[in-house]
Design brief:
CATH superfamily: Cytochrome P450
Number of domains: 1
Number of helices: 16
CATH architecture: Orthogonal Bundle
Structural class: alpha+beta
Number of strands: 10
Radius of gyration: 21 Å
Helix content: 40-55%
Strand order of the largest sheet: 1-2-8-5-3
Distance between the termini: 57 Å
CATH topology: Cytochrome p450
Length: about 400
């Protein structure tokens, strides 16, 4: 059994490099030289960093690596992330059997058949947004006028959350997902969002609708605070991830004109293109966190009980042993083995919806805006390096 060096190799999160689409160079170098490395977190706490595709899958599929953030040794990527875990927990921060019990309550909501039935409505929303964005204009910010409102409208529709409150919950989400948010700011944003969703859940008890919150109420198995926590998870994750993936995908295509031309020539290949973009961009750049509940050997390295582990899905998705030429965007690649949605029992519940939204968003934008281009130099684009969910703050485009 090999032994990795106990001295931290670098501090996590690491500095970004020249290409904003790539994982930080330190992670890429670690994958080649020391795939399971010791790193130091923001507060000096040591953790293991796992960077290879095979090893990341091994950790994420092993029940001996816990998702429970209350366990000693659990690695937090920031003070704000640690504080966020102090609130009402959701099933993504639980282990089985409680994780499975709560997750099953939502599984039916995101089955492929049920999600596919939403295609006409999501297409209508996408077309309406582009109608408004392009009316009498030749330029706009694609983030705020298309990429962000599309998944926000959809998740509000599914949950039964009034879309007119979107500025409020998007503001709270930004605070919760910033790595540099203070503990006080996280507390305040979390409390405001929890109060909002608890009040909304109580309103559903009096006047139910066809949304997920109402159906959770009708089950009679959860307290109001538990339903509110589920609503918070779905609301934040349901719009932040897809919004940033949409904008970043459009930008990546504009920066790779050969791939853009291929997708325009083969619009029927959009589903495969989405998988490759998910692999190439992997917007969870901070990694997926776990803590070992007992001594485990992964990739020939012993990880001790109580030691934190950060699975870098971004570097795993660039692993040449799994994806030859992985640092290159290739829309003809079979990228279905990517780990952008995680792996194992905790993999993303909403991935069928995310895939559908991304397919519709990209197809609609490319079909309706054949002259789409950046409205500013690429060097002026502001990337979300300070956020847990990577992306761009704005995307000025013209057509």
């Amino acid at each position: 059994m090999a032994t990795a060096a106990q001295t931290p190799r670098f501090t996590h999160p690491a500095a970004r490099g020249g290409c904003p689409f790539d994982p930080p160079p330190a992670y890429q170098q670690a994958r080649h030289e020391e795939p399971i490395s010791r790193v130091s977190l923001w507060n000096g706490t040591p953790s293991w960093l796992v960077t290879r595709h095979e090893d990341v899958k091994a950790v994420l599929s092993d029940a001996r690596f816990s998702s429970d953030a209350t366990r000693p040794g659990f690695p937090f990527i920031s003070a704000g992330a640690r504080q966020l875990s102090a609130g009402q927990p959701t099933f993504i921060r639980m282990d089985d059997p409680e994780h499975a019990r709560l997750r099953r309550m939502l599984t039916g909501e995101f089955m492929i058949r049920k999600v596919e039935a939403l295609r006409p409505e999501i297409q209508r929303i996408a077309d309406d947004l582009l109608d408004r964005m392009t009316a009498g204009r030749t330029s706009a910010d694609l983030v705020n006028e298309f990429a962000l409102p599309l998944p926000s409208l959809v998740i509000c529709l599914l949950l039964g959350v009034p879309y007119q409150d979107h500025e409020f919950f998007q503001e709270c989400s930004r605070v919760l997902l910033r790595r540099d948010s203070s503990v006080a700011d996280v507390d305040a944003a979390q409390e405001r969002l929890a109060d909002y969703l608890v009040k909304l859940t109580e309103a559903k008890r009096a006047e139910p609708d066809d949304g997920i919150l109402s159906r959770l109420v009708a089950r009679g198995e959860l307290e109001t605070a538990e339903i509110g926590a589920m609503g918070r998870l779905l609301l934040v994750a349901g719009h932040e991830t897809t919004a940033n993936m949409t904008a970043l995908s459009v930008l990546a295509l504009l920066q790779n004109p050969d791939q853009l031309a291929h997708l325009r020539a083969h619009p029927e290949a959009v589903a495969g293109a989405v998988e490759e973009l998910l692999r190439y961009l992997t917007i969870v750049h901070s990694g997926l966190t776990r803590v070992a509940t007992e001594d485990v050997t992964v990739g020939g390295v012993r990880i001790g009980a109580g030691e934190g582990v950060i699975c870098m899905v971004s570097t795993a998705n660039r692993d040449e042993s799994e994806f030859p030429g992985g640092d290159v965007l290739d829309l003809t690649r079979d990228a279905r083995r990517h780990l952008a949605f995680g792996f194992g029992v905790h993999q993303c519940l909403g991935q069928p919806l995310a895939r559908l939204e991304l397919q519709i968003a990209l197809d609609t934008v490319l079909r309706r805006l054949p002259e789409l281009r950046l409205a500013v130099p690429f060097e002026e684009i502001r990337f979300r390096g300070e956020m847990i969910i990577y992306g761009v703050h704005e995307l000025p485009v013209a057509w």
